[in-house]
Amino acid sequence: MLKVADFSVAYGQSEIIKNMNFTLGRNEIVAIMGRNGMGKTTLMKSLMGVIPSKQGSIELDGKEVFHLKSHDRVKAGMGYVPQGRMIFSTMTVRENIETGLTTTNKRTVPSDLYDLFPVLLEMRSRRGGNLSGGQQQQLAIARALASDPKLLLLDEPTEGIQPSIISEMARTLKLIRDQRGLSIIVSEQVLKFALDIADRILVIEKGEIVHEELRSSVDEAKVASYLAV
Amino acid sequence: MFSDFSTAELMAIFAMQGFAGLILFAVFILMALGLAIIFGQMGVINMAHGEFMILGAYVTYLTSTLFSTHAPDLFGAYFFFAIVFAFFAAALLGALVEWSMIRFLYHRPLDTLLATWGLSLILQQAYRSIFGAREVGVVIPDWLMGSYQLTDMIEVPINGIFVMCLALAATVFVITLMYRSRWGMQVRAVVQNRQMAGAVGINSAKVDRMTFALGCGIAGVAGSAFTMIGSTGPSSGQLYIVDTFLVVVFGGAGSLLGTVASAFSISQSQSILEFFMGGSMAKVLTLLIVVMILMFRPQGLFSLKVRR
């Protein structure tokens, strides 16, 4: 459903993502792994259109989105949960989720989002900035899901979150995938989380995919060796 | 300075100057609201804001002459039409300016300062060429003339009360729009994080244009109100722009309630001090106090406390 071809991103002269090619199937969860500074966040941001990309093609369900602005990419069916969550801190939890409804015709938060994250229902009148890290992460995911995406991009969702919540998040994300039939790309440094959630693992190094493996046949030691400093 | 007056006189002076200050407050708040939402949303300091106000004043003047020549029977009601026309004229010009100039400069905030200052000069000259260098006065309909006698010594001008109500209505309108409407929510999201707002599906370019137009439109309404307390000339707007900036900064950028509070305190202290020490000294003292307070509270009067 997603086809990325000859995709390059550069900051000035330095090319961060180099001619990347990969595809993503419907209902598939792919984890993109790599050490710091290897281009994970840049890849996610450029797929979302938050930063400009240099060349290539991003085809979502047969539609070219490379030249679209990020709000049009949301309309085309992409949802984005950024690194560091980036919720709107002075707005309430409910308003935060409602911003995600912009591209839809809905006016009120669908109740199934609150079913997924009951804590948000409890906190709906609080300011987003006053939530804990884990709650903010749930809020960021709920906000992205509000626009009914076909593809969800999650950038290091486990960053700064306690281990018990990490495994719960893996469960929730798989549940979301099964319920809504969406595809997920998640960038990750925590191998355990990636193994918990992904169907396929891509390892990137210096902006190129250096290793690709299905979850079912994954050689943990090999992937771990890529992540070791 | 108070010793020359009896207590009763002092009370009357405070009350009357207080009411006079309320009219100033009304103009400040209408100006500052527009400036605050534009600055809050896009970080653009609109130096031409005073000229948008004066556009509203000229539109009011045109409407009044139009009504007096073509529909003298309806003259009493012209002001309501004038407000609407002033709003749309200023908003349209604002949208045009945003589209043709400001949107190319979002990455260069200091350049917008220069560009809008240039725009203010262009507009001033345009007014001078079209309407003449002489100030024009607007004929106020009869029902807005005169004053309301509260006690022997205190009387309140009716047009002042009207302008006050207008300002209050505009404030309530803007606050409702910002905190209750979908559009307001989008504006607040863009203010907080432009990139992220785009990534949840908000078209920030469209929101920018609407915000700029709305801010300028409110300045146009301020211009309508302004015709009641001053005469309209090509450069009348300049006198107000500095005070308005003061109001916005003092109130805390991004907080509408702070803007209201700071407009109130600045206009009141200005108006009351003016009576005792003259206009310039009153301004000096007000400025000094504001600067002192800002030294201890650089974020302005009101600011939200949350984790960033």
**Spans of chain B of 5+ residues with little confidence (pLDDT < 50)?**
none
Compressed to H and E, one letter per element, the order of chain B equals HHHHEEHHHHHHH
Q: Which term fits the overall shape of chain A?
A: globular
| Main sheet strand line-up of chain B | 1-2
For the sheet with most strands of chain A, the description reads: 6 strands, mixed
Q: How big a fraction of the residues of chain B is strand? A: under 5%
Biggest interface pair, counts: A-B, 30 and 21 residues
Helix/strand-derived category of chain A reads alpha/beta
Helix content of chain B: over 70%
> Residue share in helices of chain A?
25-40%
Number of helices, where a helix is a run of at least 4 consecutive DSSP H or I residues of chain A: 9
Q: Rg of chain A, please?
A: 17 Å
Indicate the proportion of strand residues of chain A: 25-35%
Summed up, the domain count of chain A is 1
Spatial shape of chain B: globular
Going by CATH, what is the homologous superfamily of chain A?
P-loop containing nucleotide triphosphate hydrolases
The tally of structural domains of chain B comes to 1
Secondary structure: elements and pairs:
The complex is a heterodimer of chains A (229) and B (308).
Chain A (H helix, E strand, L loop, with lengths): L1 E10 L2 E11 L4 E5 L6 H9 L6 E6 L2 E2 L5 H7 L1 E4 L11 H7 L11 H6 L1 H5 L10 H13 L5 E5 L7 H18 L2 E6 L2 H7 L2 E6 L2 E7 L5 H8 L2
Parallel strand pairs in A: 3-8, 3-9, 6-7, 7-8
Antiparallel strand pairs in A: 1-2, 1-4, 4-5, 9-10
Helix pairs in contact in A: 3-6
Chain B lengths: L6 H36 L6 H22 L7 H23 L8 H23 L15 E3 L5 E3 H23 L1 H11 L1 H6 L4 H26 L8 H14 L4 H22 L1 H18 L12
Antiparallel strand pairs in B: 1-2
Features:
heterodimer, A: 229 residues, alpha/beta, Rossmann fold, 6-stranded mixed β-sheet, 4-stranded antiparallel β-sheet, 9 helices, globular, B: 308 residues, mainly alpha, two-stranded antiparallel sheet, 11 helices, 2 strands, 2% strand
